[in-house]
Amino acid sequence: MSIEYAIIIKNKTRLESLVERFNTKAQAQFYIEKSGGNFQEYTEEHEKFYQSFVEVQTRLSKIIKNKIVEREFISSYIFSENNLIVVVGQDGLVANVAKYSKNIPIIAVNPDKERYDGILLPFNTKNFVKGVNAVINENFKVKKMKFAEAVLNDGQRLLAVNDLFVGISSHSSARYKIILDGKEEIHSSSGIIVSTKTGSTGWLSSIFNMAFGVLGLEKSDYPEFSEDDLYFAVREPFKSKRTQTEICGGMIERGNKITIESLMPNNGFIFSDGIEQDFLQFNSGSTAEIRLSEEEAVLVIN
Length: 302
Description:
Low-confidence stretches: none
Number of strands: 16
Shape: globular
Strand content: 25-35%
Order of helices and strands: EHHHEEHEHEEEEEEHEEEEEE
Helix content: 10-25%
Strand order of the largest sheet: 6-5-16-13-8-9
Radius of gyration: 21 Å
């Protein structure tokens, strides 16, 4: 495989989104500061990102041709097997890109180590060139990123690197039937999170943190996770004459699945990796099967 082109993927900074909302930087600053916010934080974050981004683009241009693609266009962008993907941004951007990467190697660069955890960002602006050269020379180390997969009964499909959320797009209770290992229940809850091991340090961990706090348990009780399994948790399940709470969390082993039937006449949806724009409608008549996908993404590691 010959790498001919690098695709650099970025997202808008918070400052850029504010300027879009308020038309000018001055108006954005006025609104934030009038509300008691610290506009300087937005400015410093923006400046640090673009300092890193320009450095990445400059270094990359000395090695290979490249072009920039904004995150909002990723779902419709057609990648080639002759591409190399360079993501500059937060962990969530890597997760979003991975779903559309079609096994193309991803080099993920942390542009701001003081602000971003970088769990999915093994490179920085200084050492990412090593990863680029390794991919070009076909001698690179990888971490295979496994997906959770939701498939609806009409054939629609959604992947997630971190987690899938099944619920309702309001503060109302999500109503659904849940089926696992031949057992089924009717639920009224704040929705279901289904997580991969990669995502277990994210949204799923917050549920464990809440439970540990309520029960007074030590964080050492946090369970071990496997790359080959999925894990689910029902958020705030409500027990009543018509709803049950026995199937509230657990493991979905590789080869197994959890089935969820929507009982919501409207506003039901499934979204992935915390991005509500990346969703499937999930209203009455829809059934979703969630399992570990056979597809994988290729994350280049240092």
